[in-house]
Amino acid sequence: MAATEGSTATATPAAPPEGEPAAPTVIVDDLHVVYRVRGAAGRAGGGGPAALLRALTRRKGAGAREVHAVRGVSFVARRGEAIGLIGSNGSGKSTLLRAVAGLLPPESGRVYTDGQPSLLGVNAALMNDLSGERNVVLGCLAMGMTPAEVRERYDGIVDFSGINDKGDFISLPMRTYSSGMAARLRFAIAAARDHDVLLIDEALATGDRAFRRRSEKRIKELRERAGTVFLVSHSNKSIRDTCDRAIWLERGELVMDGPAGEVVDAYEASTAD
Ligand SMILES: Nc1ncnc2c1ncn2[C@@H]1O[C@H](COP(=O)(O)OP(=O)(O)OP(=O)(O)O)[C@@H](O)[C@H]1O
Question: How many angstroms is it from 1 CA to the middle of ligand 1?
Answer without folding.
Answer: 28
